[in-house]
Amino acid sequence: MEFDVPLFSRGFVRRRAISLATSLSVMATSFALAQDPKHGSEARRTTGADEQQFLFEIDLAMSNMNRSMLTTPTDDIDRDFVNVMVPHHQGAIDLARAEIKYGRNDALRQLAKRMVSEQEEEISSLSHALPAVVSLAPSTGAEIASHAPK
């Protein structure tokens, strides 16, 4: 007797392939930028250690975001949307915080500060949008039960 059952769904494989490609792209870019000390504006006065730490933090933020966005479908489109969007906005917050910490351009640092507040508001709005949400999918590591309306 022979069974023709796929091990993984097409959507599962596609999401994992996109995540892997994104992570590899970010990693390759980080390494390329780290190897070229003249990349970017010459007016920027960062040390090599600052640049390395910045690249590490943005790479980590992107990897965490991509991993957290790969949630298991819940058969609830709205919940799945929240489960993907919360880590997406958290990733933007983490990237903006790296700019605030290491950036030298005051206008960009101010923009990054505004982005943090706006993204935190978006996360709060998403968290409150679904009634009786106990928690996000375990892969996001975030709990929003405390934000649920009573």
Search tags:
mainly alpha, 150 residues, disordered C terminus, flat
Percentage of residues in DSSP E strands: under 5%
- What are the low-pLDDT stretches, counting only 5+ consecutive residues below 50? 40-44, 133-150
Report the helical percentage.
55-70%
Q: What is the string of SSEs from the N terminus onward?
A: HHHH
Radius of gyration: 19 Å
* Number of extended strands: 0
Name the structural class. Answer: mainly alpha
Question: How many separate helices?
Answer: 4
Terminal residue distance:
54 Å
Shape: flat
Averaging pLDDT over every residue, what do you get? 77
The biggest sheet amounts to:
none
Account of the 3D structure:
The chain is mostly helical and 150 residues long. 65% of the residues lie in helices and 0% in strands. The chain contains four helices and no strands. Helix 1 packs antiparallel against helix 2, helix 2 runs antiparallel to helix 3 (77-102) and helix 3 (77-102) packs antiparallel against helix 4. The termini are far apart.
